[in-house]
Amino acid sequence: MRYCHKKAEKKLKKEGWGKMKKVFTFVLTITLLLCSGWSSHFYFASDEKTIEIEPQLYMGYGYSGVLTKDGNLYMWGYNWCGQIGNGDKEQQLTPVKVLDNVVLASLGYLHSGAVTEDGSLYMWGNNELGGVGNGTTEHQFLPIKVLDNVVNVVLGAYHSAAITKDGSLYMWGENDSGQVGNGTTEDQHLPEKVLDNIVSAAVTFDVAESAMTGAIAEDGSLYMWGYNEDGSLGNGIATGIQTIPLKIMECKKNVSDLIQQIEEVEGKCYQEKCVKRLEF
């Protein structure tokens, strides 16, 4: 059985879901990558229209999306909260195009987000706790623009994160464990800036009230906040919650230095001019 409201998910928790933690490690694993020399990827925003786009497949709770090479985003599956983005809440049995000129997307538990070529962030779907970020708690059945100059978006079960071109990290949505990072436990219905100079972020996909968030700064510092009953923040204790970002560790390598080295070798991609997959 599918649900559209979190209170129904609490019932699932009691019935044995327990702590279902699926971390959206979009690029949070860059911490290990930068410190160990492994290989990963990072995307920059663009001011140009000639953008390399790789086909991507996304999956939420009972629904899916695919980004084609020409920048079209297709969605299908469970749609009770409008997470498909086609204007209704009927189950979508075949892929339907919902946006074009998309460069990346992310699917949460029951809400969706996509960034277009011009840096616009569009959100839709479940908005019971403000995860869409449009200032309301009404479900959103069509994509709605909520932020400009975005280079990355990652969605959890009921909270959301976006990084803008200047490195600002914005958070919004459910905040019962302090996962938004604004110093409160009140749900946040609009994007709120919580950190500067951020290059990557990740959020937990959790319906069991144990959400947390992590981010890596340009200097390699790792910040964590949110639920910590299992010691999941890495701050030396296993209790309580953290409502503001807490620095947990530092990498020896500076992200900007690595990017500069790559650009010097490739001689093609610069942060202000193009989207390019960089291999670390």
Question: Mind explaining what this structure looks like?
Answer:
The protein is mostly beta strands and 280 residues long. The chain has helices spanning 6-17, 30-36, 255-266; strands at 22-24, 41-42, 56-59, 63-67, 73-77, 92-99, 102-107, 111-116, 121-125, 140-147, 150-155, 159-164, 169-173, 188-195, 198-205, 212-217, 222-227, 241-249, 278-279. A hairpin with a 4-residue loop joins strand 8 and strand 9.
Structural class: mainly beta
Multimeric state of these chains? single chain
Shape: globular
The major β-sheet equals: 5 strands, antiparallel
**Residue windows where pLDDT falls under 50 for at least 5 positions:** 10-49, 268-280
List the helices and strands and how they pair.
Blueprint: H1 6-17, E1 22-24, H2 30-36, E2 41-42, E3 56-59, E4 63-67, E5 73-77, E6 92-99, E7 102-107, E8 111-116, E9 121-125, E10 140-147, E11 150-155, E12 159-164, E13 169-173, E14 188-195, E15 198-205, E16 212-217, E17 222-227, E18 241-249, H3 255-266, E19 278-279
